[in-house]
Amino acid sequence: MKNIKIKIFLILCIVVLLSSCKRNNSIYKLHPPYKYQVEYCGNKIILSKISNTGETTSTIWKKRNGEYFDENNRLQMSLKDTSYRYYQKVHNVRHVKTSTWIRPENDSLYSATTKYIWNNCYDELKFVVYYDKSYRIKKIQVGGLYEYRNK
Fold this sequence. Notes:
- With about 150 residues, this protein is mainly β.
- It is built from one helix and eleven strands, in the order H-E-E-E-E-E-E-E-E-E-E-E.
């Protein structure tokens, strides 16, 4: 009889403890500090980065020989599998190695991935641009955390 009372008491304690637990139903949204806008103007693509305060920074990619190049004449989009590296100054740090890989993801989707390589060992994703055979940008991924999709 005593064992049954102890078991019932323990079961009641567990039930009370479990019923007192509250579920956290909060949904946390990640708000990126900026968004991208893509404009197609003839043989140019204008990528505009717009901050939450409205500040805009634009980059123009021009089409030449069937591929797109930035203002520094660096290849940004191609239908050929390729990669290249160059050094540049980033955030007041000289000689940061920047690498870009362009590759097909599947028959109709390509990607161009650009990374910074700090001190020849640490790499940081700058951005990835996903585009189709017509060079229409489908998605931009920045820093591994934020994605901007073409709607």
